[in-house]
Recover the amino acids of this structure.
């Protein structure tokens, strides 16, 4: 994993120090939010979303492997975590959301079909929540998992393992359904071209892409029928290895 060695090139916010190795080089701005992506594991992305006025933070898809990075950043900069969210029940890493929720007594949001008993706020398709003064909308985009939810903040879509920059999440793991994945990625592609996607993984160092570019260059969106997509996904992932420690992570995240 090389991405997590990248040091930020610029510290745009006074609240985030230069030296946290998991923070990516780029910061994104949307409405009143500053969005800091973090790399962990093998191409996992989590998102530290800061309201600089209130110094409140929301975390999307926090990874237990880098729990210290979140806690140190909160502590050293006197920021207050107000909520944690997982886009889905992950199969490639352990979520830090229950730990953070219990430790700091903050709500843990996930889709209502998520199996974890630690979830405190179960959201349905289309619902919205204002957290840290920022409006989040939850869009059910199943296919990778039953509980997969894309989180919208203004014109930014945190797509988890539904739509990636140049690909999409696999649909052969527990709860996966390639026909639903086809529907979900096309549903997301309907948003205007000036929306940006921020995926849950990227294996080529890309943090995000405007949807106009994704629509043109993501070959999985070019597959013209659901039947062809299902055939492609089934054949492609029959050759792929399953993620390391898949059963462990699914069991851990579903506790
Ligand atoms: Fe996943």
């Amino acid at each position: 994993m090389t991405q997590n060695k990248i040091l930020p090139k610029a510290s745009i916010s006074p609240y985030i120090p230069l030296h946290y190795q998991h923070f990516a080089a780029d910061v994104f701005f949307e409405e009143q939010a500053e969005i800091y992506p973090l790399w962990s594991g093998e191409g996992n992305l989590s998102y530290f979303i800061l309201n600089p006025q209130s110094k409140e933070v929301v975390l999307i898809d926090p990874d237990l492997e880098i729990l210290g990075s979140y806690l140190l950043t909160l502590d050293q900069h006197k920021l207050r975590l107000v909520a944690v969210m997982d886009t889905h029940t992950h199969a490639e890493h352990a979520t830090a959301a229950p730990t953070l929720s219990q430790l700091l007594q903050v709500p843990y949001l996930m889709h209502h079909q998520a199996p974890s008993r630690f979830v405190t706020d179960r959201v349905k398709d289309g619902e919205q929540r204002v957290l840290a003064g920022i409006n989040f909308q939850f869009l059910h985009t199943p296919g990778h998992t039953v509980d997969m939810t894309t989180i919208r903040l203004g014109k930014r879509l945190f797509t988890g393992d539904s739509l990636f920059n140049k690909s999409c999440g696999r649909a052969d793991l527990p709860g996966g359904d390639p026909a639903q994945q086809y529907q979900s990625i096309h549903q997301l592609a309907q948003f205007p071209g000036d929306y940006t996607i921020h995926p849950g993984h990227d294996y080529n160092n890309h943090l995000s892409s405007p949807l106009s570019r994704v629509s043109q260059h993501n070959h999985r969106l070019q597959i013209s029928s659901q039947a062809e997509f299902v055939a492609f996904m089934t054949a492609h992932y029959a050759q792929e290895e399953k993620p390391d420690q898949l059963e462990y992570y699914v069991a851990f995240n579903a506790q």
In short: The chain has one domain: 3-239. The radius of gyration is 17 Å.
